[in-house]
Amino acid sequence: MYGPILTWMSRSSAKINPHFLWGYWVIRILGVDPGSGTTGYGIIETDGSMHRAVLYGAIKTLSRRPFHERLLNIYNELNSILEREKADIVAIEDVFYATNVQSALKLGHARGIPLLIAAQKKLPVYEYSPLEVKNAVVGYGRAEKAQVQAMVQLLLKLPEIPTPDDAADALAVAICHAHQMKTAAYK
Questions:
Q1: What is the pTM of this model?
Q2: pLDDT at 18 (0 to 100)
Q3: Residue 165 falls in the annotated catalytic set
Q4: Considering 47, 88, 166, 169, which one is annotated as catalytic?
């Protein structure tokens, strides 16, 4: 059986290795909510319509550690996760707002880590603004965090809202990409 994702993948130049599940070809998407203090991650399997959480959590760094060591910690943890649980695509939340220049720079450095890992593993990367993520998951770009978390729980059929918040946000980014792929398949 060929679901909508296979149609989308045939149009893509990226090398994606889907596998067969639920009677359809499915892919794994790693969603990332970057941060220098906490980086959320979530891997979902999807056929474009049905989604299943494979793994999610957050990488927390100690603020008292030197910044370069915090970045190394994020790199090592995220790389280790992708060694254990393969992904076909990386979807990452784009920078949209920072309280000051210093915060924006640190967030930019933290965003560079999953981008680097994706490049090393030759994984395609897709970036989404928080507005796009909220719109894809909730249907309203200005949705509250609690609404996004509740929809993530519902869409992934989880027994409870994923914690910490950064993990729920990362899963939302992955779901956003799954919905974008499905939309692209029917264009």
A1: 0.86
A2: 60
A3: no
A4: 166
